[in-house]
């Protein structure tokens, strides 16, 4: 019981530390926005450098979804509904969740290791000595970059995924193109689009916060940075799936 109480205490302490860390970032966001070059570079670093893997994975996820969806719908004689089902699946679930997991694995680990390396080499301490706030100069721009990049990557993933479904369903399996798109337009509502956008924004906040927190609080050793990057991926993945359930339950 004593060990369980200690574990619970550590979890609560970590949660409180992350919450305070988030508050400090939010307080520095207005000042960080006064340096648009830093913010734009971090958007490029987190978003544009992840674009290739997002597009490739989106295409193959869409193609697999087209094959599996057609096989399932063909059993009920509803092949024409492939566009509707695939679009809703990508908008509401697959797009935001898979993009967030890929973002955590590529950009999240890069952010954590970069800030962790600055901790190891005492660059953050040097900034404090020179009266430069590391939160304003290092942490906040990277957080903003991830926050902006992830929703944009989510929309790109969904668009490429729908193209992959159309490629399989219409070009390979012979579904009528007009029926494919008309069914999709008739079934997808603005609420469904907003659900994908909201999830992308929430996941962007969560994944970016975890990445910069783990990097900033990493132990100043090579092993410490390695553990921080590992925790970034694991925590971001678990938090993404947890938040996905919470948002889905609220919006339904």
Structure, explained:
There is one protein chain. This protein has 252 residues and is mainly α. Helix content is 87%, strand content 0%. The chain has 9 helices and no strands. The protein has helices at residues 2-32, 36-46, 51-74, 82-120, 123-129, 134-172, 177-187, 190-216, 222-251. Helix 4 (82-120) runs antiparallel to helix 9. It is elongated and about 70 Å long. It starts with a helix and ends with a helix.
Binned strand content: under 5%
Question: What's the multimeric state?
Answer: single chain
Poorly predicted sequence stretches spanning 5 or more consecutive residues: none
What's the helix-strand series?
HHHHHHHHH
Distance between the ends: 39 Å
Helix content, binned percent? over 70%
Total domain units: 1
**Shape label:** elongated
Main structural class = mainly alpha
- Overall pLDDT metric: 89
- Please provide the count of β strands: 0
Give me the Rg, rounded. 21 Å
């Amino acid at each position: 019981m004593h060990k369980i109480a200690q574990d619970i205490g550590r979890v609560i302490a970590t949660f409180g530390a992350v919450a305070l860390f988030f508050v400090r970032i939010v307080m520095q966001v207005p000042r960080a926005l006064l340096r648009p070059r830093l913010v734009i570079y971090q958007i490029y670093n987190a978003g544009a450098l992840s674009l290739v893997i997002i597009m490739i994975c989106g295409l193959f996820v869409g193609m697999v979804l087209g094959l599996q969806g057609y096989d399932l719908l063909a059993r009920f004689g509803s092949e024409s509904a492939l566009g509707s089902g695939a679009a809703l699946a990508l908008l509401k679930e697959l797009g935001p969740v898979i993009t967030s997991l890929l973002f955590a694995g590529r950009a999240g680990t890069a952010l954590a290791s970069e800030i962790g390396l600055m901790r190891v080499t005492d660059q953050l301490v040097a900034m404090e000595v020179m009266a430069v706030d590391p939160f304003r100069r290092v942490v906040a721009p990277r957080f903003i970059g991830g926050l902006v990049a992830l929703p944009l990557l989510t929309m790109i993933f969904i668009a490429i995924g729908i193209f992959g479904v159309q490629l399989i369903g219409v070009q390979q399996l012979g579904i009528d193109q007009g029926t494919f798109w008309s069914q999709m337009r008739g079934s997808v509502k603005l609420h469904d689009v907003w659900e994908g956008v909201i999830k992308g924004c929430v996941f962007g906040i969560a994944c970016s916060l975890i990445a910069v927190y783990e990097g900033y609080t990493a132990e100043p050793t090579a092993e410490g940075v390695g553990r921080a990057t590992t925790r970034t991926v694991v925590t971001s993945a678990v938090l993404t799936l947890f938040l996905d359930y919470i948002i889905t339950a609220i919006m339904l």
